[in-house]
Automatic annotation (TrEMBL):
Residue stretches spanning the membrane: 32-51, 57-76, 88-107, 119-141, 161-180, 186-208, 239-259, 279-298, 334-352, 373-394, 400-422
Coiled-coil regions listed: none
Localization (cell): Cell membrane
GO terms under cellular component: plasma membrane
Protein name: MFS transporter
Keywords of this entry: Cell membrane, Membrane, Transmembrane, Transmembrane helix, Transport
C-alpha cells in the first residue's frame, strides 16, 4: 500500500469509521443473538413442542443449521466485497439481517399454523446466517484498512465489540420483557417485542453506515486495476491453508463464546438449576461488559506484543478457567455465577480482540474480504454452530455439566496449537506492495514463529 493511502486521515476519521462498523455489528449480533437466547426459553415450547423431550435439543439444532449458510453468505459477500467494495456489503448484510429478524417476530406458533411455523422460523434463521456470514468481513476490513499500521489492533477491535454489545442488548431486551410480563404473557407475545424492535435499530445502523467512506486500500486496488475477476478461485488455489488455519483459530473462540451467546448457559441455569430467567439474563449482561472490555484490551495489546502472543494468553486463560467456571455455575448463586461469567469472558476477549487485525494481515488485498469472511464463517460452523446442542446433549447423556468442559478444553487446545503454525505479521503493509505475496510462507511457518 502506498504511504499516502496507509497514513491518510486523522485519528477522528479512523475512529468514526471504526464506530460506524461497531454500530452495524452490534445491531447484527443483537439480531442474531436474540434468536439464540429465545431458543431455550421460548422456541422449544412454541415451535417444537410436538417433539417431546427432544424439543430443546432440536430447538438448539436450529441455531446450528443457520451456520451452514454462513460460508455461503461469506462467499457471496466476499466475492462482491473484493469486486465492488467493502462499503456496499456493509449496507446489504445489515438490511438482510434486519428484515429476517423482524419477520421472526411475526411468525405464528405451531399451535396456530402447524408444521409451517417451525419451517418458516428455520428459513428466516437461514437468512440470518447468510447475513452473519458476510457481515463480519466487511466491518472488520473497513476498520483495519482505514487504520494506521501501528493501531490496527485497536481500531480492528471496534467491530469486535459488536458481539458483546449485541449480547448485552439482546439479554437486556429479554430481561426487560421478562421482568415486565408474566410467564404466560412472555410466551404469548412478550418475546416478540425484541425481534420487532430490530427494525428501529437497523434503520439507525443504515443511516450510520451510509456515511462511511470506502476503504483507502480497496480504492487503491481499484484504481490500479489489480482486482481479481475470480477472488474465490484465487483464494482456494493460492491461500487455502490460511483459510483452514483461520477457521480453526476462530472455532476455538466461537465454541467457548457460544455457551453464553448461543443460550446454553441461560437455558442450563433456568431449566436445570432453577434460576430465575431475569436474574441469569442480567448476570450474562454483566459478563458481556467484561467481554467488551477484554476485547478492546486484547486488540490494543496485540498492537504492542503481537497478535499471536495475545491469542496464546487468552487460550491459556480459557483452559485454566473452564472447570472452575462450571463449578461456580453449578452453585446457582448469582454472585458466584457472575464472577464465573466475568472471568470466563476475559480469556474470550483476548482471543477475539486481535482477530480483525490478524485476519486482515493474513491475506492479500485482492482476496482479503473473501479470505477473512470465509475463515470466520467456516470457523463459526466448526466452533459455534452446534456448540449449544452438543453441550445440551453431553450434559443430558452424562448427567454432568463437566463433560461440556472437557469438550471446550479440547476445542481450545486446537486453537492454541494453530497459533504456533501461523507467523506473526504485525504491521505488515496491507496493499499491493506488501501483503500480496502468493508464497504461503509469508503467513505460515513450519519451523519458527518470529
Amino acid at each position: 500500500m502506498s504511504p499516502s493511502a496507509q497514513t491518510s486521515g486523522s485519528q477522528s476519521q479512523h475512529r468514526t469509521v471504526a464506530l460506524a462498523a461497531m454500530a452495524g455489528t452490534t445491531i447484527e449480533w443483537y439480531d442474531f443473538f436474540i434468536y439464540a437466547l429465545c431458543t431455550g426459553l421460548v422456541f422449544n415450547s412454541l415451535f417444537f413442542d410436538g417433539l417431546g423431550e427432544n424439543s430443546l435439543i432440536i430447538s438448539f439444532a436450529t441455531i446450528g443449521i443457520s451456520f451452514f449458510f454462513r460460508p455461503v453468505g461469506a462467499a457471496l459477500a466476499g466475492h462482491l466485497g473484493d469486486r465492488i467494495g467493502r462499503r456496499a456489503m456493509l449496507i446489504a448484510t445489515l438490511l438482510l439481517m434486519g428484515v429476517a429478524t423482524t419477520l421472526i417476530g411475526l411468525v405464528p406458533s405451531s399451535s396456530s399454523i402447524g408444521t409451517s411455523a417451525p419451517v418458516i422460523l428455520v428459513l428466516l434463521r437461514i437468512l440470518q446466517g447468510l447475513s452473519a456470514g458476510g457481515e463480519w468481513g466487511g466491518a472488520a476490513l473497513i476498520s483495519v484498512e482505514h487504520a494506521p499500521a501501528a493501531q490496527r489492533g485497536r481500531f480492528g477491535a471496534y467491530p469486535q465489540l459488536g458481539a458483546p454489545l449485541g449480547l448485552l442488548l439482546a439479554n437486556g431486551a429479554l430481561a426487560a420483557v421478562t421482568a415486565l410480563t408474566t410467564d404466560d404473557q412472555f410466551l404469548a407475545w412478550g418475546w416478540r417485542i425484541p425481534f420487532l424492535a430490530s427494525v428501529v435499530l437497523v434503520a439507525a445502523g443504515f443511516v450510520i453506515r451510509r456515511k462511511v467512506e470506502e476503504s483507502p486500500v480497496y480504492r487503491e486496488l481499484k484504481e490500479s486495476g489489480s482486482r481479481s475477476r475470480a477472488p474465490l478461485a484465487v483464494l482456494f488455489k493460492d491461500h487455502w491453508p490460511l483459510v483452514v488455519a483461520g477457521a480453526l483459530l476462530f472455532a476455538a473462540n466461537n465454541a467457548v463464546g457460544y455457551m453464553t451467546t448461543g443460550g446454553y448457559v441461560q437455558s442450563y441455569s433456568v431449566n436445570h438449576l432453577g434460576m430465575d430467567p431475569t436474574t441469569i439474563l442480567i448476570g450474562v449482561m454483566v459478563a458481556a461488559v467484561g467481554w467488551l472490555v477484554s476485547t478492546m484490551v486484547g486488540g490494543r495489546l496485540s498492537d504492542r506484543f503481537g497478535r499471536l502472543r495475545v491469542y496464546r494468553i487468552g487460550f491459556l486463560i480459557q483452559l485454566a478457567w473452564m472447570f472452575p467456571f462450571f463449578a461456580l455455575l453449578n452453585t446457582a448463586n448469582i454472585g458466584l455465577v457472575v464472577v464465573a461469567l466475568v472471568l470466563y469472558s476475559f480469556g474470550l476477549g483476548l482471543t477475539y480482540g486481535p482477530q480483525a487485525a490478524l485476519f486482515a494481515e493474513l491475506y492479500p488485498t485482492a482476496v482479503r474480504y473473501s479470505g477473512a469472511a470465509l475463515s470466520y464463517a467456516i470457523g463459526a460452523v466448526l466452533g459455534g454452530a452446534f456448540a449449544p446442542m452438543i453441550a445440551e446433549a453431553l450434559q443430558s447423556s452424562t448427567g454432568t455439566v463437566y463433560s461440556v468442559g472437557v469438550y471446550l478444553v479440547g476445542v481450545t487446545a486446537v486453537g492454541l496449537a494453530v497459533t504456533f503454525v501461523l507467523k506473526e505479521r504485525l504491521g505488515v503493509p496491507l496493499g499491493d506492495a506488501g501483503a500480496d505475496e502468493k508464497d504461503e510462507q509469508a503467513a505460515l511457518t513450519t519451523s519458527s514463529n518470529p
